Hints:
By secondary structure, the protein is mainly α. The protein has one domain (about 45-160). Helix content is about 60%, strand content about 0%. It is built from six helices and no strands. The protein has helices at about 10-25, 45-60, 70-90, 90-105, 110-120, 130-150. The chain is flat and about 65 Å long.
Amino acid sequence: MSGQTAYHxxxxxxxxxxxxxISMLPIKSNKMVVIKDKKQTRSEAQLRLKWMWCGFLAKExxxxxxxxxxxxxxFFKGKFMRALLxxxxxxFHDFFTNADRLLESAADEENRNWAKKTIIDAMKTExxxxxxxxxxxxxxxxxxxxRYSVQLPIPDDLKWAVEK
Length: 164
């Protein structure tokens, strides 16, 4: 995504700068102008709820999987985010193509585990829009109900964070 300029049209001055830059482009240049809606990333409430659930699971499942809250976060990102990101935006195809190459080039299991951890750590829930973050949260909730028979807590002030 290098060489890209993005303008979030929030003021007349920003719009004028955008139009000025476009007007200076030579005709038949190797440039493309795209107008699209600003991505709306996951909300702070969704983020708070995710971390609350990861902390809850670290305590609730202590002695079983041996995961702390960071490990639960990593586990769920590895399990659910790839499909959501690929559905959300074609820009993530390159990320996962490179990730797959890294995994394929791993010489042994230790390197493969390192590569998986590196890829999962590189993925950020802030890349998800609010709709897909909601789906991510729903997937976590369903997984915990079906796999562990655990009902995740949802405080009243965060109920909307899992709804679409």
